[in-house]
Amino acid sequence: MAVTVKIPTQLRVATGGEAEVEVAGSTVGEVLDAVFDAHGDLRERITQDGDLRRFVNVYVSGEDIRFQQGLETAINEGDEVTILPAVAGG
Amino acid sequence: MAIENLKCKECGSAYELGASYFCENCFGPLEVTYDFSGLGAEEAKRRIQAGSQGIWRYADFLPIEGRPNDPLEPGQTPLVRADRLAERLGIESEVWIKNDAANPTHSFKDRVVAVAIAKAQELGFETVACASTGNLANAVAAHAAAAGLTSYVFVPANLEEQKLLATGVYGTNLVGVRGNYDDVNRLCTQLAETRPWAFVNVNLRPYYAEGSKTLAYETIEQLGWELPNRVVSPIASGSLFTKLGRGFQEWLDLGLVEGAQPVFNGAQASGCSPVATAFAEGSDVCRPQKPETIAKSLAIGDPADGPYAVEQARRTGGAIDSVTDEEIRTAIKLLAETTGIFTETAGGVTVGVLRKLAERGELQAGERVVVYITGEGLKTLDATRDTFQMHEIDPDLDSFESEFRQEVAV
């Protein structure tokens, strides 16, 4: 499944300035692994011990993956995966 | 005294004092650090006491250069003894109510917004914005108007009418988002990347959050330079709760006050209690929730400072509890009847948790407890509907006498 992954501005230094990364995968975990394969520097910034860091939020077409199956959340054709910092608001 | 830099609370990475709010290495929140080494306790106290009658008297402890000229300066709100409330709760503790509804736009959000707007101006922004559950919307719209800045205020579209009206009046761009607060917050996090705006609680959040420390400072001053033994505070994002702790700690470290951190009791609504749930489970992971509560000002299902709030409650021997909507309504009335203070639903949550602590026998005789009331009852009038009855009579004596035959002894 081909999907677009949106990268926050502050992390684009690790993607060579790209705001979006096109990758393939059938779950969020696979998609993120594909992103890390392309831009290795991102893995450590976003994950720790194989899990998302505690202040990283990931959305699939606008819905927080913690309300779905986390990294196992299925990806459908055309979905958009967004990585955002969790420390806003309040 | 000097403002140093921004530092990640997770990994310690340092950043320049700009409009940034999360760590590029680990996504952790950034916090302002200071060097207080040049500031002695006596000198600090003198500067505070010679200052204004509002939050800028604490300018040495806020991340702003100088002392802003602030036409809507918040702060110095009443701290009142609540003996009749303690009596109704059957406790012999010394209960104090910090009534922060007595601010320019009637909530504690004036404190954080005053700091954020001052910082926005310092950094040269011309437009300010926020993601809000209502109180922040009021404050941003008003303070932006006072400062002559353009503002955009994003709220859940189903907010209480009072809070919408009390925002729109200031001439802001009021945007009602079809979704809950966490949806609004996500949208604003994305907009903060594409618009050159100062989102007070997104890209200016490290500065904004510092404003809450002034509630701790005022408490100490108003108690005659003493600390309370315990505080009861609402938790939405957990920012106020943790910044109260930071404020107390800074003055302890500086020698402005003696003693120890108070016990921290946090208050959430049962319909949105990710932090209370994490505390109860012994975890520091706040699983997000879809809020369903009348306490809309606390309805943050994905609290940014949740893990730190849990840690603070544990470290101080406190707890984080939650109360139902019915308990919130009852507590609003209890506070109003015993103190003359009419709070919005968030205050009902806080007083409801105070009541729970009393019922559990956790409040000791002589213990000094400060309860933070963060917003005004007129903003959530629906919560009081049908909690009392009006006597309707004809305009004559007989009508009055017959209505009050039992009650009035002539």
- Percent of residues in beta strands of chain B: 15-25%
Q: Are there runs of chain A of 5+ residues with pLDDT below 50, and where?
A: none
Helix-strand topology string of chain A: EEHHEEEEE
Instruction: Tell me how many strands of chain B there are.
Output: 13
**Structural category of chain B:** alpha/beta
Head-to-tail CA distance between termini of chain B: 67 Å
Report the principal-axis shape of chain B.
globular
Radius of gyration of chain A: 12 Å
SSE-based structural type of chain A? alpha+beta
Task: Outline the structure in words.
The complex is a heterodimer of chains A (90) and B (410). Chain A is of the alpha+beta class. Helix content of chain A is 19%, strand content 30%. Chain A contains 2 helices and 7 strands. Chain A has helices at 28-38, 41-46, and strands at 2-6, 20-24, 47-48, 51-52, 56-60, 63-64, 80-85. The longest helix of chain A has 11 residues, at 28-38. Chain A is globular and about 30 Å long. Chain B has 410 residues and is an alpha/beta fold. Helix content of chain B is 37%, strand content 16%. Chain B has helices spanning 41-49, 83-89, 109-122, 135-147, 161-168, 181-194, 205-210, 213-222, 239-254, 274-280, 306-315, 325-339, 345-359, 397-403, and strands at residues 2-8, 14-15, 30-35, 79-81, 94-99, 127-131, 150-156, 173-177, 198-199, 230-234, 263-269, 319-323, 368-373. A 6-stranded mixed sheet of chain B has the order 4-5-13-10-11-12, with helices on both faces. A 4-stranded parallel sheet of chain B has the order 8-7-6-9. In chain B, strand 10, helix 9 and strand 11 form a beta-alpha-beta unit. At the A-B interface, helix 2, strand 5 and strand 7 of A face helix 6 of B.
